[in-house]
Design brief:
mainly alpha
């Protein structure tokens, strides 16, 4: 995996793909259900998602 932030998307997908490879090590054909696909996509999102700012760090909108 790369430390270069330009490769974040590819690295996140690689990490999830490695987990899938481990899950399907038996070599048998397996079907993936929609809820399992959703979990895979959420795993990728968790790898990419930046931390949410704390409420204290957010700025209030300015009045005009």
């Amino acid at each position: 995996m790369s430390d270069d932030p330009n490769y974040r998307v590819a690295d996140a997908m690689r990490k999830v793909a490695l987990r899938l490879d481990e899950a399907f090590e038996s070599g048998k054909v397996a079907c993936i259900y929609a809820n399992q696909l959703a979990e895979i996509l959420l795993s990728i999102a968790e790898e990419l998602d930046p931390p949410l700012p704390n409420r204290d760090q957010t700025t209030k909108p300015t009045e005009r």
